[in-house]
Amino acid sequence: MHTLTVDALNPAFLNVQYAVRGELAIRAEEYRVQLKTAGDNHGLPFNRVISSNIGNPQQTGLDQPPITFVRQVAALMEWPVLAELAKDVFPADVIARAKELQAEIGSVGAYSHSQGVPFIRNNVANFIQERDGYPSNPNHIFLTAGASAGVTLLISMLISNPRSGILIPIPQYPLYTATLAANSGVGIPYHLDEDAEWATSAPDIEAAIEGAVREGITPKALVVINPGNPTGALLDEATMQNVVRLCERYGLVLLADEVYQTNLHSRSTHPFTSFKKVVRALGSSLPLVSFHSISKGVMGECGRRGGYFECTNISDDIIALIYKLVSVLLCPPLSGQIGVDCMVRPPRQGDASYALWKQETDTTHAALAQRTKTMSARLNELPGVSCVDSPGALYLYPRIRLPDAAIEAARKAGKEPDTFYALGLLEDTGICVIPGSGFGQKEGQYHYRLTCLCPGVDEYVGALERFHRKFVERYGGL
Ligand SMILES: Cc1ncc(COP(=O)(O)O)c(C=O)c1O
Question: Where is the Aminotransferase class I/classII large domain (predicted)?
Answer without folding.
Answer: 92-452
